[in-house]
Structure formats: C-alpha cells, structure tokens
Amino acid sequence: MNETGDSPPRRYGAQARQLGTCGAADELWLPVCLLCGRIDYPLRELCATCLSERLEWKAVPSCGHVLATTTLHRSNLPYFRPRLPLRVASIKLDAGPVVLAFLGDAACTAGARVQVRTQLDQGGAATLMALPLAGRV
Amino acid sequence: MTGTRQDYRGVAIAAPVTFGYALSSPHETPWFIGMTLAAMLRRAGLAKAEVDGLAVASYSLVPDHSASMAEYLGLGPRFLADIPFGGASGVIALRRAARAVQAGDAEVVACVAADVAPQGDGIGANFSRFSRDHVYPYGAGGANTVFALITDHYMRRFGVTREDFGRLCVAQRSNGRAFPGALMQGELTMADYLAARVVSEPLHLFDCVRRCCGAEGFLVLSEARAVALHLPHVLIAGAVERHNGAPQQPVQSGPLHQDIADLYEQAGMGPEAASFVQAYDDYPVVVMLQLEALGFCEAGGAARLLRERSLAVDGDLPLNTNGGMLTLGQAGAAGGFCGLTEALRQLTGESLGAQVPAASIGLVSCYGTVNYDRGICTSAAMLTRAGRP
Question: CA B67 to CA B56: how far, in whole Å?
Fold first, then answer.
C-alpha cells in the first residue's frame, strides 16, 4: 500500500507478482499442479488438493462464464475513484477455478461467456480482465 | 452426528454487556475491552482477580493480543484465546470458553470483542493474503464487492427482489428503535430503502452496515458458580462451528451452515422451538442464507418466509431483536458477539430494548471472515433460559 493511495494497490505474494509475466497477451497463465493437474485460485505456493509444492506456470484454457457481476460506485482507494463506476465479476473458468476479474463490457451479466486475460495496471501489476465472447451458458 | 460431541452440561453464560457504540472515539481498543470487562464484573459481582480466563476478538487490537491485554488490564489468567474470526467469533469464543470451564482449565472466562472504527482503507486493504492480492486490486470496494456478487447471484437464481431485502431491513430497524445506543436511529420505510443511493450494484446504502466503534462481552462460568452468585444465566443446549465448509459452491449460495443437523440433535430440538433468532447481518442476503441454512425454509425460500412471518419482537419469528448491526452499526469483531449478547439478555429478561415475550430458547447464528469471495467461518448455538422445565 502506498502512502497517498493514488497509486494502484501493491501485490504482496510472490505468485500474485508473477501473474501476467508469462506468455502472449491473449493467453492466461496460471500455476498448475504437476501431480494432480488442479489449478487453484487465489494463487498459492502449494496445491490445495494434494498439498504438492510442484506447481508449474502454464497456459491454461482462458474461457469461462460469468457467475455474478457488480458495478462499484465507491472505492476505499483514491486511485480508483476517477475510474468509477467499475464493473467486477466472478467468473468460473473452464479450467476449474473461480476468479474475480474486471469486466470489460457494461452489458455483460451472469451466464455470459467470456475470455479472461491479464492486463497490467499503472504500477505494472497484473489484474484479470474478462472480455465477452459470443454465447451464454 | 459427527463423531461423539460432548454436551455443554454444567456451563453457564452470564453478564452480557454492550458498550460504547460510536462512529468515532478518542480511545483505543484496550480501553473498550477494559471498560467492557469492568461492566461485566460489576454485573456479576465478581472481583477482577476471580477472572482466570480471557478470550478476545478484535481486528484493531494489533499489535497486541490476549496476553497483552492480560498485562494491560492487570489480569493473571491461566487460559487465553484469541478469536480472529470476525462475524463468527461470538459462538466460537463461547465454545472455547465453555470447554475450558468444563475441563477445569479456568473457572471464569471473560469473553470480550471490541474494535475501533477503521480509518481510511481500514481493514479492507490487508484483511487476508487472498483478499489483498486477489480482491482489493479490483476496485478496493471492500466487503461490498464480495457481497454485491453474492447478492446478484442470489437475486438471479431465486428471483429475489430489492423489496424482499427491504422487508428485512425495515423490520430490523423497527426492532432496534427501542435499543439504546443504536447508531441508525429513526424509522426506515420501504420507500427510504428503495430510494437509497447505490453503493455497489445491486447493494444500496441500507444494505450495508455502518462501521463504528464498540464492544460486547459476556462471562462463561460453571452453572454452580452462576447459581451461587445469584446471576441470571443461560445454558448451552448445543453449539457448532465449521470453516471453509462448502468450497465447492462457485458462488456462496447455501446451505451456509453444514452442521445444523448436529446442532439440533445435540440440542434435542429444532429451529421452530426457538423463541427468537439472532443472525449475523452484515448484508441482508447473509441473513436470508442463514434462515435457509437454519431450516426455517428451503434454499431460496427466505423471501417468501419474510412475507409470511413477522420478524417483529412480538411477531411469530422475532429476528435480530436489537435491530442487528444494520441498526446498531458494525463494531468490527464485536459484530460477531452482538447477536449472542442480545440472546443472553432476551433469555434472562434483561433486554435493553424490546423484550420477546416469554423467551425461553434462543438460536444464534454467526458468520464471518471474508477471506476471498465469501465468509468462510460459521458458528451457531442454541441457548436455553436457566431453570426451564
């Protein structure tokens, strides 16, 4: 956290800092358990299914569907206030986990198919961004 | 029944205290804890030296903890518990304290929750590893973001409307109007509720608790000691807790409790035996999910339940009889205690506000710790008035 709050939030965990540093812009890379194949999110240092520490960052299927959406009209951090309202969604990735992401389309609601990619904020840290695809679940 | 749960025979709860609700305070968290303890001791007629156990729930006590409080307050306890489980902390503190008393590890355990209102970003920026890296960077909306998503999902899945949530908020405000010190004074009408400004769609102003300072506390001691002290007290018919109990739900949608069958089996009675319900109410959807999990209706049936039953203190399903946090304000971890202290007062006939007529059995449901996209700690207890035939 910066002192004035006019910069984007810092990331604390090594995994969160690694997000968005691998692969092409339209790819989604996440740590995959080499023992059981599970993909966990939020990011961890070991697998929440088999407790293996053998995780490897890989390109994973980046499509999923929107579970729920909100539009934020207030923020606790000054950095975000000029950017309001902000659309945020929870998304069930086809690859398994549920992720929170910014939603790049104002009309996108629960059930919409989306593609999730990483984008870098002003501080160079990655957030997830969901963009609409054709079709619904 | 999961394994063989030992009952809570011989344990009493007494001296409930609600203290110091205010939007801001010049005082620090230890002052709230100490003032609450002093009020509990006055209520019980006990000397400070007779307290040999201390359980503390607080976010703002950092960098201190329960042992720091022992020195700060001049106590020499032989049992300590730190209860960092927010909204679920009340019944969890009770469970820890009750087992300590049963085992003889302590004779009198003071359970206290206290917080001062967070400044600036508050606890949202650094609440948990998961939230600071995976929720906060998405607009820094705090818990509102998570519960807006849970509410959106619940509304779409079950066809629930803002009016349905409004019915709950209006009823709770009405219950709390007689409660001294509640921060949200005055009548709330459905028109007020519906006209409120948007915070994080679909949540609007009156769906969100107001952060504040405040403290709650109670004593756990042997039933024999409570009787000897002539203390009005309450007994524990059953109590359960569960953490990260339903990770398979893509969005938290119920059942919110996983051990309710155990609770009712231990208590030897079901939900309809309860004279009232106190359910954690950081957001209305959470109350609806608890009513469903407690068995008052099926999943998604809470909106209909609220239309059919009266939540008033003198109604057929008295709910959050002090108005809940939506009326009192949310004093951090004390919000995890305020339903329990209110239940104790209702059962001993010591209500500070409106009294449920002939209250003999109370159901308390707690929920908290938004670690990522949901509250992961739950607890619940069935309490009975001492001397019930």
Answer: 10
Write phi, then psi, for B240 (nearest 5 degrees): -140, 160
Q: Which residues of A touch B (CB under 8 A)?
A: 1, 5, 8-9, 11-13, 15-16, 41-43, 67-77, 79-80, 83-84, 86, 88-90, 92, 98-102, 110, 121, 125, 127
Query: In this structure, are residues B53 and B108 in contact, taking their beta carbons and an 8 Å threshold?
Result: yes
Tell me how crowded residue B71 is: count the other CB atoms within 10 A of its CB: 10
Using a CB-CB distance cutoff of 8 angstroms, which residues of chain A are in contact with residue B129? Answer: 12-13, 42
Which pair of tokens denotes residue A125?
């840290």
Yes or no, beta carbons of A42 and B134 under 8 Å apart: yes
pTM for this structure? 0.96
Q: Specify whether the CB–CB gap between A39 and A96 falls below 8 A.
A: yes
HEC profile of B62-93: CCCCHHHHHHHCCCCCCEEEECCCHHHHHHHH
- Which residue, among B303, B372, B287, has the nearest Cα to B157 in the 3D structure? B303
pLDDT tens profile B139-172: 999 999 999 999 999 999 999 999 999 999 999 9
Residue B231 burial (CB count, 10 A): 20
Query: Which residues partner with A100 through β-bridges?
Result: A90
Cβ separation A110–B149 shorter than 8 A: no
pLDDT in tens, B104-132: 999 999 999 999 998 765 556 678 999 99
